[in-house]
Amino acid sequence: MNIGKIAEMAGVSRAAVSRYFNNGYISEEKREAIRRVVEETGYRPSVQAQTLRTKRTKMIGVIVPKIASASIGRIVEGILSVINENGYQMLLAVTQNDPKKELEYLDAFSEKRVDGVILLGTVFQAEHKKMLKNLSVPVVIVGQQMQGYNCVFHDDYHAFYDLTKLFLERGRTKLGYIGAIMQDAAVGAQRYQAFRDAANDMGHGEVGDNFVIASFSLRSGYEKARELLEKCGDLDGVICATDTMAAGAVQYLREHDIRVPEQILVGGQGDAQMARVAIPSLVTLHYSYEKSGEVAVQMLMEALMQKGEQAASREIRLGYYIVE
């Protein structure tokens, strides 16, 4: 069984069958005729033959730091929704927050095993920039702004500036901050800098030093809440870089009979389910994670359409809003 036989049995041209299997345009009548023959015969086109002919694998490599993350899960859902519409499949690589693993996957994907790469960035080192520069397939970076590359990210600085400002306007002037490592430009450096700047601009610059660094887990948020209170004494507000950290902080405060939000108001980022069901619920920042995944694939598809032509890189910054 081959394309020619399928075309003969369906009463259509070979070109129509080819367009059918490559998600091209054909009339509904011809599509239905081909579909019936395909179902009757069980025919499946050879992936290897398609790859040799089109120089396309119809695979997109997606590199993520971890899978136990609500935000990453939402980004991947957005990616899948557009990949599926375009007839592609996703090859998911999980690095477990190991920069060396990121480099290994980038190297593997560079060997033309995929048509393009979506990289959910965390910490970019010199080796990453060198690898990205020499990558043989198009790449889109999600979650970090990187000049010279297609990237989609959120406005971390202004989001945390506005969140800090809200706390201060509510009279929470003894603030503390639980953040991420500063090597992470978006989640670590930009969010903390926004906290400092907002406090300073509103006449409370002294709280800028009330901070500790946590990892992305409930346990770390719990432990760092204790460390923050031991370091800073009485606080009336705690802002965390993520909802996961914030949920861990709330757990610590409640176990130590500190009333939330009456004594300490707690805020986070992500608008995750845990933020909505936590008792009391958190003040949180909503990011359009699904949208960022969708936009990333759209940018990658546009790059693939260039067929080797060098196109200008684009940076897309998405917005946010505060959920109380």
Kindly summarize this structure in a few lines:
The chain is an alpha/beta fold and 324 residues long. 49% of the residues lie in helices and 17% in strands.
**Are there runs of 5+ residues with pLDDT below 50, and where?**
none
Order of helices and strands: HHHHEHEHEHEEHEHEHEHEHEHEE
Percent range for β-strand residues: 15-25%
Shape assignment: elongated
The level of helicity is 40-55%
Query: Could you tell me the number of beta strands?
Result: 12
The overall pLDDT average reads 89
Distance between the termini: 61 Å
Task: List the strand order in the largest sheet.
Answer: 2-1-3-4-5-11
Biggest beta sheet summary: 6 strands, parallel
Look at the helices and sheets and give the structural class: alpha/beta
> How many alpha or pi helices?
13
Rg of Cα set: 24 Å
Write the layout of secondary structure elements.
Elements: H1 3-10, H2 14-21, H3 28-41, H4 47-54, E1 59-64, H5 70-85, E2 89-94, H6 99-113, E3 116-120, H7 126-133, E4 139-142, E5 150-154, H8 156-169, E6 175-179, H9 185-201, E7 211-213, H10 218-232, E8 237-240, H11 243-255, E9 265-269, H12 273-277, E10 283-287, H13 289-305, E11 315-318, E12 320-323
Parallel strand pairs: 1-2, 1-3, 3-4, 4-5, 5-11, 6-7, 6-8, 8-9, 9-10
Antiparallel strand pairs: 10-12
Helix pairs in contact: 1-2, 1-3, 5-13, 6-7, 8-9, 10-11
Structure description:
- The mean pLDDT is 89.
- The termini are far apart.
- It is built from 13 helices and twelve strands.
- The strands form two sheets. Strands 2-1-3-4-5-11 form a six-stranded parallel sheet, sandwiched between helices.
- By secondary structure, the protein is α/β, with parallel strands linked by helices.
- It is elongated.
